[in-house]
Specification:
mainly alpha; elongated
């Protein structure tokens, strides 16, 4: 006797799969992992002993892969895109810290535009969109004979 059970969500290969095909829980989970990773490397990121270039390297090779795991399969809403950008800006603010105004001597928070100027690498959304396009190109090269193609276009 088969006992068919349905679930609202489950984790498969590190990715949260929901019955609503929503990425909201996946993004929440991945940002939680990213925050945990940031917490683990908080001391080096906050340290004045390490250069900003080294801090950026830590972000790019330790934190970013944790957050972007499986992003090739994501379909994001604007709200989820904003959450990812907010996360990245939080990390970059930790790396670059506040800046002292040379005229007044006051400490000022870095605004998003300035953060983007200081961080010369592509922002998190450009990386995600690039990876999604790379997967789509790969699936297109496989053609109709591949199972992945059939899943992508919704054929069974």
């Amino acid at each position: 006797m088969n006992d068919a059970r349905s679930v609202e969500q489950f984790k498969y290969l590190g990715t949260n799969v929901t019955n609503q095909n929503s990425m909201q829980e996946e993004i929440k989970s991945t940002l939680k992992s990213g925050n945990a990773c940031c917490h683990l490397v908080q001391n080096p990121l906050s340290s004045s002993l390490l250069s900003q270039n080294l801090d950026i390297t830590i972000y790019r090779i330790i934190i970013l892969p944790v957050v972007l795991y499986g992003c090739e399969t994501w379909s994001l809403t604007l709200r989820e895109e904003r959450r990812l950008i907010v996360f990245e800006n939080m990390v970059l603010r930790r790396i670059f810290g506040p800046k002292r105004d040379e005229v007044t001597g006051e400490w000022k928070k870095l605004y998003n535009e300035k953060l983007n100027d200081l961080y010369s690498s592509p922002n998190i959304m450009r990386v995600i969109k690039s990876r999604i396009m790379r997967l789509a190109e790969h699936v297109a090269r496989i053609g109709e004979r591949g199972g992945v193609y059939m899943v992508l276009v919704g054929e069974t």
